[in-house]
Amino acid sequence: MKQILLCSLLLASQITNAQSQMDQPGYYRIQLGEYELTALSDGTVPIHLHDILTNVSHQEIDSLTTLSYQTPTEEASVNAYLLKLNGKNILIDAGAAELYGPTLGHLPESLRKTGITPEQIDAILVTHIHTDHTGGLMLNGKMVFPNATIYISQPEVDFWMNEKNKTPRLARWFKEAADKVGPYLKAGKVKTFEYGDEVFPGITALDAHGHTPGHTFYALESKGAKMLFIGDMVHAASVQLPDPAVTINFDVDEKTAAIQRIKTFKDAAAKGYWLAADHISFPGIGHVRAQGKGYNWIPINYSTLGNGQ
């Protein structure tokens, strides 16, 4: 599986190197209750859906991507989110840094454009330890966020920091986890939590295991507004929204990951709260609406007033 992913990313790198990159603003800001929320772009990378999606035929992938005016080679966003309240700067996830090619690794630049430096980040809430979410913690052997406390679920730390869990399929991720998260652990900068804990005022960590053993959603509720930060619940929106049972070959537990996605889409559609997704097209914020056996993605309305309505 990992070999397929690496081949996919190498091909993506060849494609993107042949194309000129277009400079984009890299951030989008709204107000959510008491919190100022800024979506941050780490960049984009082409992904090859025939190679990485599972529990789905190539024919269905082709059909569903065509309906979204996409192709089976999609340009996936890698997003992170900055929350500001009472002088605290809190990141959700940290991007990929150098690990997946030159079109990613732009999170520090996007952050600086908002007027915040990496040194000003107080806390980083990690959805899971896959390195498109934690790769940006370290660069060239140095901490990118030297003043931040890193929050990770206890089950996630227990899995990725225990070599007994390593298999050939997961070996590269274990090495990257050691390289990117390990220095913060050794420095005493990692704080673990249990599901259900309120990690900051109005921000609760929720059990979303499946994609990884300690995958976490963060539910933000403030002044009647709610947003759920869903990490890697969605990798290919054009396919997994209309067919939430479709999985990806780097789910640690594909069956449970699909159950989590189906359950979350159903709840979000019924209750109408916001979702913030790390791999839906930037800024990755929107609602879902039930349609047939699946769902439609309703992206946030562009707003200069900051409410996204």
TrEMBL record:
SUPFAM superfamilies: Metallo-hydrolase/oxidoreductase. Keywords: Hydrolase, Metal-binding, Signal, Zinc. It holds the Pfam family Lactamase_B. GO terms for molecular function: hydrolase activity; metal ion binding. Coiled coil: none annotated. Residues 77-273 form the Metallo-beta-lactamase domain. The keyword Signal applies. Residues 1-18 form the signal peptide. InterPro entries: MBL_superfamily_lactonases, Metallo-B-lactamas, RibonucZ/Hydroxyglut_hydro. PANTHER family: QUORUM-QUENCHING LACTONASE YTNP-RELATED, QUORUM-QUENCHING LACTONASE YTNP-RELATED-RELATED. Belongs to the metallo-beta-lactamase superfamily. This is MBL fold metallo-hydrolase. The lineage of its organism: Bacteria, Pseudomonadati, Bacteroidota, Chitinophagia, Chitinophagales.
